[in-house]
User: What shape does this take?
Amino acid sequence: MFRITKKADYTVFVLAYLARRAAQEGQDVLVSAQELASLSSLNKSLIANLLKDLTRAGILKSVRGAHGGYRLARPATEIHFGEILEVVEGRFTFVECAHEHLITDALPDLDPKGPGGAVVRDHENCNLSPLCGSRGPLLVLHARIQRMMRDLSLAELSGVAHCATGLAVIRADDAAEVGTSARGESRR
Assistant: This one.
């Protein structure tokens, strides 16, 4: 099934912590790799590598020195889930035939020049392409998931802002489902 990797999960945890600290103490608050490693109980080298990748991608800024550390390079409202996932997992591809050409027919309101625009690869490498009736609908689904990831901000993921997309609102039934799924139980 569709799920993010542990590395992506750790990255969201680290960035959400930085976003909450920035909301509480100001955008310029610095957090050390050691503090993040201690807080998360993760290996310091793993945290350091995540921080390095996020800095290289322009999501974080690093400050060297005895009182150095890391901070968000932009406000949490301007950092999006899709951007975060792309740093740690690479470009999102729901189906193999979704890659290089922009989809504008399926979802014309997507900005083809903007980050997270829906992308489609020529399907010439797929033996099923002449017979495939599901390619179009799957590309629409790909574009919708990609748009959702682009629209979900770090501020929403970290709880420092209300989720404009409504994704953060969990009904009691959904919360019960999340709880039973986490324990490996079935609701049936």
User: Anything to note?
Assistant: The first strand starts at residue 60 and ends at 63. Helices lie at 6-25, 33-40, 44-56, 81-89, 135-151, 154-158, 172-182. The two ends are 20 Å apart (CA to CA).
